[in-house]
Specification:
2 domains, binds S-adenosyl-L-homocysteine
Length: 429
């Protein structure tokens, strides 16, 4: 049984986390138990921002998300595009449509594209390698991230060789019992972890992550997630609140909360100051200022939608997803205002993880406009961090003349979700 900590005891845990980059299970339990203590979030977020600033300055990186297929062979209980959802209107973008999204994105200042989709067998290695090659040829100065679910090691290798740089595969829950309760039989946590380890070994910058407040999740499950992340040492961690989708088995479940999500963002930032941490669309859906709160808690990435507006509403992972009606340029302008409002700056950059050096052909990943990688031996990032202090390195992009100016945009009104009506105040930092 965990005692509810005093503010001093909880603040000491924040300090220890900052110093040692990890806590014991019992200490994490106390910290999570004390998360509503007045003043604790302010302390945590202040330290998290300092940790982020030491590595990334005030930079916020944008990723243009292209949701290119909502066909999926998986049947995750929480997800609106699960195969059993007969009401989902299925679509696939063509190679040309994907390339058009990238071209538009590049003109808007994006230097990373994320190709995300359900697990759609139509997109076999041959088709995907062709698309990846075409994006890479058209935009050699941009990074390409894939988020296509579980595949074989050989497939991940083929896609990496075709030019993909990064891969996002949320582990969803590192607690085996909880993972099983979120997925039908045949969906395997062991395989998902195998995928993450293969991706890392191949040389991708890897992202894992989980939903906050998914049905049945306890603080112990969250601590399992934190320990798993500590072991994997990913370059990115995507977390966002669970939000029910009306046509799934979890339709009647409670959504996850923005306050716990941002608290965990603060913890993750202190665990690894070099992490790429998105303030997710789900966080912006559950609370009108959710993404700003995420940035104030230590996040440094935003992933606006670049998919054609005609298909946006069809990629409904959860109800009331925001930004499904806005043109890419509107989203871009809206995000820039939000980022500036919290004292940070959107930068035109690939936004690679600080310290990550790709082992494969350097020409594909180090365009001249990027800040120099951290000097030192060519080792994988997971070898450089955690065990050694973060090197003195200041890749603050706006100080570097090598960065291009951000194109100007016509301001657009901020659109809010009906879900947000239910939301109360977020803790302020
Ligand atoms: N098929 C890919 C992409 C999945 S969708 C893959 O397997 O990685 C991207 C993420 O959206 C999922 O990993 C999941 O964490 C999140 N997601 C799905 N349904 C959700 C819901 N109802 N609420 C919040 N997030 C959800």
């Amino acid at each position: 049984m965990i005692a509810f900590p005093s503010l001093n005891a909880a603040a000491d845990l924040v300090e220890k986390l900052e110093r040692e980059r990890m806590l014991s299970r019992g200490e994490f339990k106390s910290l999570l138990a004390g998360r509503t203590l007045p003043g604790l979030t302010a302390r945590l977020f202040e330290r998290a921002r300092a940790a982020r600033r030491a590595v990334y300055g005030d930079a916020v990186y944008l990723r243009g998300l292209i949701e290119f297929t909502n066909y999926c062979r998986k049947d995750c209980f929480y997800c609106g595009i699960r195969k059993s959802n007969a009401r989902a209107e299925r679509y696939r973008l063509s190679r040309e449509q994907i390339l058009a999204c990238c071209a538009q994105g590049r003109a808007l200042g994006f230097r990373t594209f994320v190709l995300q989709g359900g697990e759609d067998p139509y997109f076999n290695d041959r088709r995907l390698a062709d698309i990846i090659g075409a994006v890479r040829a058209a935009h050699p100065d941009c990074a390409l991230t894939l988020s296509l679910g579980e595949r074989s090691r050989a497939s991940y290798q083929t896609l990496f060789d075709a030019g993909a740089d990064r891969y996002l595969l949320r582990h969803e829950s590192a607690a085996p019992g909880h993972y099983r309760s979120l997925h039908p039989a045949g969906h395997s946590l062991r395989n998902r972890m195998r995928c993450l380890s293969d991706l890392r070994d191949i040389g991708y910058q890897v992202g894992c992550g989980f939903m906050v407040g998914s049905p049945g999740q306890t603080d112990d499950c969250l601590i399992d997630d934190l320990f798993f992340i500590k072991d994997l040492q990913p370059q990115m961690v995507g977390i966002g609140p669970f939000i029910p989708h009306k046509d799934t088995p979890f339709a009647g479940e409670q959504p996850g909360g923005a306050p716990l999500t941002v608290f965990l963002l603060g913890i993750l930032r202190l665990m690894d100051p070099a992490l790429l941490l998105p303030a997710t669309t789900a966080l912006g859906t559950i609370h009108p200022q959710g993404r700003e709160a995420g940035l104030r808690a230590g996040a440094n990435v935003l992933m606006p939608n670049l998919s054609p507006v005609a298909v946006r509403k069809k990629y409904m992972l959860y109800d009331d997803k925001i930004c499904t009606g806005d043109e890419a340029a509107e989203c871009r302008a809206c995000l820039e205002r939000r980022v500036n409002a919290v004292g940070l700056a959107v930068v035109v950059s690939r936004g690679d993880c600080a310290g990550f050096l790709r082992a494969a052909p350097a020409s594909a990943c180090s365009p001249a406009s990027e800040p120099a990688p951290i000097p030192g031996p060519v080792v994988r990032r997971q070898d450089q961090f955690f065990s050694v202090p973060i090197p003195a390195f200041n890749p603050i992009p706006e100080l570097s003349p090598a960065f291009e100016p951000i194109p100007a945009f016509v301001p657009a009104p901020i659109s809010e979700s009906p879900l947000t009506a239910k939301i109360t105040e977020l803790p302020h930092a």
